[in-house]
Amino acid sequence: MDPNRKTARAAAALLAVAATALAGCGSGTSDTGGPSPAGAGCPAVLQAARAAVERAERAVTPWNGPTTGPAAIPGKSLVYVAQTMTNPGVAGVANAVREAARTIGWTVRVIDGQGTPAGIQAALSQAVTLKPSGIVIGGFDPRLTSQQVARAGAEGIPLVGWHALSAPGPSTSPRLFTNVTTRVEEVAKAAADWVIAGSGGHAGVVVFTDDSIPFAETKSRLIEERLAACPGVRLLAQANIPIPDASRRTPQEVSSLLSRFPKEWTYSVAINDLYFDDAAPAFRAAGKPGAGPPLNIGAGDGDPSAFRRVNSERFQAATVPEPLAQQGWQIVDEFNRAFAGRPASGYVAPVHISTAANSAGASSWDPQGYREAYEKIWQG
């Protein structure tokens, strides 16, 4: 199996298991109402969506993150506890943390939680036992490891999360110095605006989600709310497929949807890019062109497999990626602020939409200027 196909499935396994206790694990596809009024339009929403998409698709944007902060505190060590290193998002950030740590003069050790609750708890326990200067919570909810988090706090070890919580910034419960992530509401809006703008305000849309994961359920709800702002955009159905079951269930679900909406289905939005990897065989079997329709956008991490589909126009037209390398460097900078007794930077990366037209064949979204900015800060 392509390691990139194991990615979010393995990464989401922990979340899906844990979230079952928090939210009902629904499944299947739900219709979401009748057709929109004929000729309904949304000129103001359409204009705003086009402007937002134009901004988000800019391939080169100036660095808008921190340019001041404490000089490098020498001799520090970090442990990166990964939810699973088979997730390219988690692994990409880990590699960037290593790169940034070499630049600032620190050491990093990565411990793989193997994608299971027991494995992650054991990994975080091992990390605390090592007594590093700081620990990265790499892609899992620290509330699932509350005992280990409490031990780290008792040892005075600061924690910085990556996608550890749904919101960026510091957290008091669970206690994180800061959480590095884009804003879910901005990612959801960008994906929905891409549909509104690209369709001229007239589309039939299917949304793929996993309601067993609260973060994913929130993202899909925000996507649907934004789409509803344009009466000419009809939400045909919500395909609620748990991510661990995506490879098994998505092809059958897509085939059923194509039978029900053979012409009406023109766009798709998924809370994670992997759905389109699993949907491709069904689209291909139905004779659908790789370049669409339906035109598909992932509101997910933007892993390398998603970029391959986008760049080759194989059943995915766009993705709203995370700047994984930049976020790894930010994690190191946030720790340096913690060690210096300074507050978190408060920086949140702006959303970006990657397409074949603006990615230039890249396998990730890597904005410019952050390495130079952080190096200048650390040099003092």
From TrEMBL:
Pfam families with a match to the protein in the record: Peripla_BP_4
Domain of life: Bacteria
Residue ranges constituting the Periplasmic binding protein domain according to the UniProt record: 80-335
The entry's keywords: Signal
Signal peptide positions (record): 1-23
SUPFAM superfamilies attached to this UniProt entry: Periplasmic binding protein-like I
Subcellular localization: Cell envelope
Record carries keyword Nucleotide-binding: no
Family to which the UniProt record says this protein belongs: Belongs to the bacterial solute-binding protein 2 family.
Descriptive protein name: Substrate-binding domain-containing protein
Natural source organism: Streptomyces goshikiensis
